[in-house]
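Quick start: load a record and inspect it. Here is Carbohydrate kinase:
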Amino acid sequence: MYIGIDVGTSTVKAAAFAPTGHELAVAARPVTLTLHAGFVEQDMQEVYDAVVAVLDEVTARIPEPVELAGLTGQGDGVWLVDAQGRPVRPAASWMDGRAHELVDRWLADGTFEAVFRRTGSAMFPGCPGPLLAWLDTHEPKALDEAAAAVYCKDMVFHRLTGAGPRTDVSDASMPFLDPRTRTYDNRVVELLGLTHRRGLLAPVSDPVATADALGEGLPPGTRVANGPYDLPACALGAGVTTPGDGLLIVGTCLASLVATTDLDLTGEPAGLYINTDRPGHWLRAMPAMVGTAALDWVLSTTGVHHDEVDALLAETPPGANGVRVLPYFAPSGERAPFVEPRLRAELTGVSLESTKADLIRATCEGIGFAARHCLEAAGLTGTLAVCGGGTRSPAWMRLLADVLGRPLRVMEGEVGARGAVLAAAERYGQALDAEEWTRPTAVIEPDAARAAYYAEEYEEHLTRLSQARERVRA
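Running the structure step on this input writes:
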């Protein structure tokens, strides 16, 4: 049995796999996000306890011995830990918006662009650079007490194995890592005013770190590999490794990834280059801030349950009877394929004749347009896989194929956990059939007429977005 652990933003999961890649069992636990006035935080102990709980459940349900475990999880944010991996303060989430004024300042004075030209990372308020700088000003005592500023999965790895604070090249990609040398760029640390905090940056393991489990959640001595984080793990789990091929993750975050061997640090600073386990190979990532979270908000506001979405999408035609949604719901604005910390969602074309179905379809269409924008900016030229919670809605997947105008290789199940296992197997020299492990569960073809309609609507979406950005900057 192989186990993949995926420490998500709102849900922690563990999945057990057979050597063939067949998913044997999944256990999940929700974890809490605390939101207040732009602050988005998580209780690290709650997150770790959820990891132990799902591991206990999976290992109890499947009697086979655990060959190895791979770990992945949400990226960005700041997870301050002491020397034992215990929390110093609540984790600041990647969704956090408290540092937006710093990002605004760095956008204005050229720091933002200077960092991108060196690292390929377009900073946003919830990434470690701005958050560490904010904490250095407002909560210096927390930084004084911390042994390391790690990422989510790193905290879990530390606690499960006692291996000490460390991260991998994928998590470290934003915003301090030089993608050519795969080491921290001290000039970037200096540009962000954090030279005196340089010692908090966790050592980078390249290749990913390995250690034996201490016995909490996993049997003592179980081999564990730390990384990559959830975006590149999903790319591995979906078989997206050939340059030009892409992955769309329709999850809490709407992430668009394209495999590439071309490191281009010119053009509009946006998104990031994620370092992979193969030097000279990157994922050009455009992780938009909000994916299913936008639809969740609309469903909650309208009193609609998730299991009603497919039926409601069938009740209203493409174009949602004139209702339009710009789906930028995150408190910290947007980060891909552009950075606009103050951008907010817009709902237009609503009248007394509009229905819940119109609102839901317009939201799904708006998310699709945002995905198309990101994929085009990331340089998609090959096949496209799709995974995440959104794949549970067949109607939404058909809508997405039409909006994107291309076939979708649908990857169901725990794709991130699957990728974590494949990464761990590679690190430990275990021969797994990656092609078999990453076979799609379905391929959805777009409807030609609807795709042509949405191509025109996409251009209108870009116009509305441009106008919205101009209003924010005015």
